[in-house]
Design goal:
Nucleotidyltransferase, domain 5, alpha+beta, GIY-YIG endonuclease, 5 domains, UvrABC system protein C
């Protein structure tokens, strides 16, 4: 196979042969890999077709700067090459299986007295790997069966002949309880051990019938020799195999090896179920999601899943049954849709699994949405609100000994802080420490502005305080004519009591309730925001006082300097030119002269 390169303008020059094409963008990044029965026809369709092409495909086509093609012998070869390339490079516009799990294998080690144990890493040369298993439970069931049937060692010792001869090891507990025959001390020879390994291989391959025949033969031979205890031993092993096979979903012993694939889709995702049938039993069942990247058809999505899942689970079944018809035939893949019989029942079972998976995903998505709004719904119930409070605003005042009174408003949307909607307020109409009047002012200012700007009012107003602060806020709403249109409550800190307007008695929400915790979080956030603002205001005023004590520097000049430099310290560190640019040369010189005098005194 040899690669050739083309530009998008040269698509007509592509050969009319099967192969794989790769699209690259400006940065030489691989953005898409596709396969085609005819490279010329397939690639041309991207650049010629104008109708019925979705936005994502158009966007991809606009990014293409170079096309690389590789010719192969058949469409099936193209399919396999495409799968390998996508698995290796994962281009951004290709369909990707949503399945990042590393599946477990059982490895039969390549050593004296081989071991069988689970692993998730395949290391070339370590041994023969069986799997992958769709679940750890399925793998453990097989491993448990093998260890129940055969005396295969579980230790990781190096049982090379010279180490056994030198008597380097002693038997462990597994020997004493009958799970191992002690090859580490030379108590079991390797030929006898390998007989068990050969039968374990049959089970690992899914050939339970051969293992059953093996135990049945030894049971009958023991019975003929009147060795009834030995015969019972083999009968118990046979029963174990029978029970294990009974737990497997037996389809029909006449159906040997078969793969079943079914697909159901929604707007964005395809759900594909895979059943692997081995010797009449289902030994793998798996459902995966494929996220649609371009304008893929159901058959394209299903074919992608077939190739990748068969590759992932090492399936070489000669027959594949599906629930949708394919227009084309693929040499090397016997794909068909059964209409009657056991194979049709298998197809229905697979389709049922795919639909169930899709339904569960939809319910899970609904649960996420429900979980997101669960607390808000609970708060709605606790406060008997007509609407879910997905927009809450909370007010708090802050002043220390009556100085620098300020207020804050925080906003929560869908139960989360909406920081961009937070507001600070300087109290303008109230003199002295009067929380009630301050609350009337800021609530009035907030909602007067929202009404003037024709913006949406909140679904719930929370006031940090008890009856007094709540009554003052209600007065502001009445003045604006919106009292009764917006629910409003007060939350008192001492006992976390909830007050409603015109109701003398508060309600108490369960202290462990998520809705109360949300109200507390909103209240605490408003308090934090108000305190931080108050601290900043006091600091600036203190800085301003230091500056206005200097002759020639008034409040306006002080404010300009602080707005630009943020602190007196930074003003002191500034150069004459920097200060002069803000307040002029004369004032800048007076300011720096004052600083120098204070340094020397």
């Amino acid at each position: 196979m040899q690669a050739s390169f083309y530009t998008p303008e040269d698509y007509n020059a592509l050969p009319d042969q099967p192969g794989v094409y790769k699209y690259y963008n400006d940065n030489q990044e691989l953005i898409y890999v596709g396969k085609a029965k005819s490279l010329k026809k397939r690639v041309s369709s991207y650049f010629v077709k104008n109708t019925g092409v979705n936005h994502k495909t158009r966007r991809m086509v606009r990014e293409i700067r170079q096309i690389e093609i590789t010719l192969v012998n058949s469409e099936f070869d193209a399919l396999l090459l495409e799968n390998n390339l996508i698995k290796k490079t994962q281009p951004k516009y290709n369909i990707l299986l949503r399945d990042d799990k590393t599946y477990p294998y059982l490895v039969l080690t390549n050593e004296n007295f081989p071991q069988i144990y689970p692993t998730r890493k395949m290391i070339i040369g370590r041994g023969i790997y069986y799997g992958p298993f769709a679940s750890v439970k399925a793998m453990n069931n097989v491993l448990e069966l093998i260890r129940s049937l055969f005396t295969i060692r579980t230790c990781r010792l190096d049982l090379s002949p010279y180490k056994i001869a030198e008597q380097k090891y002693k038997v462990c507990l597994e020997y004493h309880i009958g799970n191992c025959l002690g090859p580490c001390e030379g108590l079991q020879g390797e030929p006898a051990y390998m007989k068990d390994i050969e039968q374990a291989k049959n089970i690992l391959k899914g050939n339970l019938g051969i293992a059953k025949a093996y135990f049945k033969q030894y049971m009958q031979e023991a019975a003929e020799k009147y060795a009834f205890e030995r015969a019972q031993y083999y009968k118990d092993k046979l029963d174990l195999l029978e029970k294990y096979q009974a737990k497997s979903m037996v389809v029909n012993p006449s159906i040997k090896d078969l793969d079943v694939f079914t697909i159901v889709t929604d707007e964005k995702i395809a759900y594909v179920n895979f059943l692997k049938i081995k010797n009449g039993s289902i030994n793998i069942t798996k459902t995966v999601e494929l996220k649609k990247k371009l304008d893929e058809t159901e058959s394209e999505l299903l074919l992608t899943a077939i190739v990748r899942l068969r590759d992932q689970f090492n399936s070489e079944s000669p027959e594949i049954i599906v629930n949708i018809e394919f227009e084309e035939e693929f040499e090397g893949l016997n794909i068909h849709v059964p209409k009657i019989g056991d194979k049709k029942h298998l197809l229905d079972l697979s389709l049922k699994n795919a639909k169930y998976y899709k339904k569960e995903k939809a319910l899970a998505a609904g649960d996420v949405a429900d979980k997101k709004f669960r607390v808000l719904k609970q708060l709605q119930n606790d406060l008997s609100l007509q609407e879910m409070p997905d927009h809450i605003e909370c007010f708090d005042n802050s002043n220390i000994q009556g100085t620098n009174p300020v207020a804050s408003m925080v906003c929560f949307l869908n139960g989360k802080p909406a920081n961009k909607e937070y507001r600070h307020y300087h109290i303008k109409t109230v003199e002295g420490p009067n929380d009630f009047a301050s609350m009337t002012e800021v609530v009035g200012r907030r909602y007067k502005r929202l009404l003037e700007e024709d913006k949406q009012l909140p679904k719930l107003i929370v006031i940090d305080g008890g009856k007094g602060q709540l009554s003052s806020s209600v007065e502001a709403l009445k003045n604006l004519g919106i009292y009764g249109k917006v629910p409003i409550i007060g939350i008192a800190k001492r006992l976390e009591e909830i007050y409603f307007p015109e109701d003398s008695y508060p309600i108490h929400i369960d202290k462990k309730s998520e809705s109360l915790r949300l109200l507390q979080r909103i209240r605490d956030e408003a308090h934090r925001f108000a305190i931080t603002f108050h601290r900043d205001v006091r600091s600036k005023k203190a800085f301003g006082t230091q500056l206005t004590e200097i002759e020639g520097i008034g409040p306006g000049t002080s404010e300009k300097l602080l707005k630009h430099f943020k602190s007196v310290k930074k003003i002191k560190e500034a150069s004459l030119e920097e200060i002069e640019a803000i307040i002029g040369k004369s004032k800048a010189e007076k300011l720096l002269e004052s600083f120098e005098q204070k340094k020397s005194s």
